[in-house]
């Protein structure tokens, strides 16, 4: 059955003065359910506070905009309070409790991409809130809360009655929140805009790959990720994940064109992508992108912590590894045509600058 691969924008699920929570729906983007992938975005206004919660899915968080504070509690561990800013990628293993806070004037926007194979709904994250009007705390009866936390009934009623927000609240400017600690950042997050580059091609593009080497915690999440920054009018080589992984891509900035080719050489997607779009490349399908003059950045997760890609063009492509005789026979062309094909792209790899 053919699946709709058309890029989609997220839809608002809930929010208020403190911010909003958006998600991509499997009904709109069927590859989410097909690939057991979830995608969501949290946007916090000044003094916005995303209440403590845990999820039914392991995720990678990526800060799209702004700066703020993240509280993270790994199972049976102490709370880590991290300073976060644009470009930070944070691994969130299964069972982790998180909260998020923005004390700055600029909106804090965080993207979440993850694996929903353990989720209640394939292709969707379900959060379980520790506090708030829809929380586990308010779900239990007064008797159970009183017994579990050894509290008087009057105190329990005050605790429950004081919870007015649903998922996101706006704190008073005078509210005191924990100060982030730089030492908590190490090992928990990596800034993809400041990390050493894995690929840097003049007038082509740059790549930072998130894997178990630079952020070991992604091994527990079971996902790899990368930030790609393509220069104006440059092209990303056609390629595919050769270890059966899915590639989930969010366009962070800019715009361009994308094509995806699948089974039997069928072009299954030809579209324009722009900031805010999410699209998913099915297993073993070949994808390529050409960006517009202003360039294009995207953040992707790959459903394996240490992905392996095969590129179809450039000096590291599979074509360069095949012998001339095989290419002549496969293409059914004479040696001079094969030579013209093989002699191109001898220096470039992965990204190709615009033609002169």
Task: Record keyword descriptors for this entry.
alpha+beta; 7-stranded antiparallel β-sheet; 9 helices; 23 strands
Helix content: 10-25%
Distance between the termini: 42 Å
Assembly form of the protein? single chain
Largest sheet: 10 strands, antiparallel
- Global morphology: elongated
Q: How many DSSP-defined strands?
A: 23
Radius of gyration: 23 Å
Number of helices: 9
Mean pLDDT: 93
Proportion of beta-strand residues: 35-45%
Structural class: alpha+beta
Q: Uncertain runs with pLDDT below 50, 5 residues or more?
A: none
Description:
The protein is of the alpha+beta class and 356 residues long. 15% of the residues lie in helices and 42% in strands. The chain is built from 9 helices and 23 strands. It has helices spanning 31-35, 136-139, 142-149, 153-161, 182-185, 218-221, 318-321, 324-331, 335-342, and strands at 11-16, 19-23, 37-44, 48-55, 58-65, 67-73, 79-85, 88-92, 97-102, 108-115, 127-129, 168-170, 189-191, 199-201, 205-210, 224-230, 235-241, 247-261, 267-274, 278-281, 286-302, 309-311, 351-352. The strands form 3 sheets. Strands 14, 15, 16, 17, 18, 19, 20, 21, 22 and 23 form a 10-stranded antiparallel β-sheet that branches. Strands 1-2-3-10-5-8-13 form a 7-stranded antiparallel β-sheet. Strands 4, 6, 7, 9, 11 and 12 form a 6-stranded antiparallel β-sheet that branches. Helix 8 packs across helix 9 (335-342). The protein is elongated and about 90 Å long. The two termini are 42 Å apart. The relative contact order is 0.15.
């Amino acid at each position: 059955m053919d699946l709709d691969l058309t890029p989609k924008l997220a839809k608002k699920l809930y929010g208020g003065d403190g911010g909003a929570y958006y998600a991509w729906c499997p009904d709109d983007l069927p590859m989410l359910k097909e690939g057991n992938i979830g995608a969501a975005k949290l946007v916090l206004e000044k003094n916005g506070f995303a209440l403590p919660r845990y999820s039914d899915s392991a995720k990678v968080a990526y800060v799209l905009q702004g700066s703020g504070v993240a509280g993270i509690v790994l199972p049976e561990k102490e709370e880590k309070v991290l300073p976060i800013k644009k470009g930070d990628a944070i691994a969130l293993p299964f069972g982790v409790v998180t909260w998020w806070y923005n004390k700055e004037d600029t909106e804090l926007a965080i993207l979440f991409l993850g694996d929903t194979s353990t989720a209640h709904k394939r292709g969707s994250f379900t959060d379980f809130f520790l506090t708030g009007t829809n929380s586990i705390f308010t779900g239990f009866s007064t008797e159970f809360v009183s017994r579990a936390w050894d509290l008087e009934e009057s105190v329990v009623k005050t605790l429950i009655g004081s919870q007015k927000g649903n998922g996101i609240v706006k704190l008073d400017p005078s509210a005191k929140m924990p100060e982030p600690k730089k030492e908590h950042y190490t090992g928990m997050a990596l800034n993809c805009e400041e990390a050493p580059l894995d690929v840097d091609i003049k007038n082509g593009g740059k790549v930072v790959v998130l894997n178990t080497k630079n952020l070991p915690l992604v091994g527990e999440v079971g996902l790899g990720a990368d930030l790609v920054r393509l220069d104006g009018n440059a092209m990303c080589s056609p390629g595919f994940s050769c270890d059966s992984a899915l590639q989930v891509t969010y366009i962070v900035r800019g715009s361009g064109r994308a094509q995806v080719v699948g089974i039997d050489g069928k072009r299954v997607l030809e579209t324009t992508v722009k900031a805010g779009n999410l699209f998913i490349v099915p297993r073993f399908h070949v994808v390529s992108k050409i960006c517009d003059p202003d360039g294009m950045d995207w953040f992707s997760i790959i459903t394996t912590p240490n992905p392996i890609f095969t590129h179809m063009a450039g000096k590291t492509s599979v074509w360069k590894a095949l012998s001339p005789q095989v290419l002549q026979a496969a293409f059914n062309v004479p040696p001079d045509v094969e030579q013209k094909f093989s002699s191109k792209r001898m220096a470039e790899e992965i990204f190709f600058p615009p033609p002169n």
